[in-house]
Amino acid sequence: MESVSGRWGPVAVAAVSAVVVAGAGAWLTALGPWYRSLRVPSWKPPDWAFGPVWTAIFTLTAVAGVLAWNAAPQGPARRWLLAAFAVNGMLNIAWSGLFFRLRRPDWALVEVAALWLSVALLMLAVGRHSGVGAALLVPYLLWVGLAGMLNWSIVRLNRPF
């Protein structure tokens, strides 16, 4: 019989990791005068939508991680999953720092391409062990794609930085 820590350990790690990445990104996000002065495309989602969308994405990502972890054999497969999630989390946080704190949407545009690629690679890593887990990451990939298009539009409308 599996121990309670063995059963709930991956869930706890995934939940804490999601909260840490979300919290760090939120802390770096400053919707002050600089942000409000940016010209944005008419199709930009309203600011209030970002919190609920990211909450759903982080929840789905945590569930995908748990599904893949539980299905993956111990050893290199699990280490690769951890590495893929760690790199993705760092890139997720870095985008907020570049865009909002450093006020460099142009640098963030390059970084968002790396973030999108990391989500695609995360889907592949998770998909090796859980098809459902990989499917749960599709909204994340689509949202980062939308964020990339929005980032590109902001750079185009507001350059130079």
From TrEMBL:
Bilayer topology term: Multi-pass membrane protein
Transmembrane segments: 12-35, 47-68, 80-100, 107-126, 132-155
Organism superkingdom: Bacteria
Gene3D superfamilies on file: TspO/MBR protein (1.20.1260.100)
One GO process term, biological-process aspect: tetrapyrrole metabolic process
Chief location category: membrane
GO cellular component: membrane
Keywords assigned: Membrane, Transmembrane, Transmembrane helix
CDD domains found in the cross-reference section: TSPO_MBR
Compartments reported by the entry: Membrane
Family assignment from sequence similarity: Belongs to the TspO/BZRP family.
PANTHER family: PERIPHERAL-TYPE BENZODIAZEPINE RECEPTOR, TRANSLOCATOR PROTEIN
Protein name as catalogued: TspO
Organism expressing this protein natively: Methylobacterium variabile
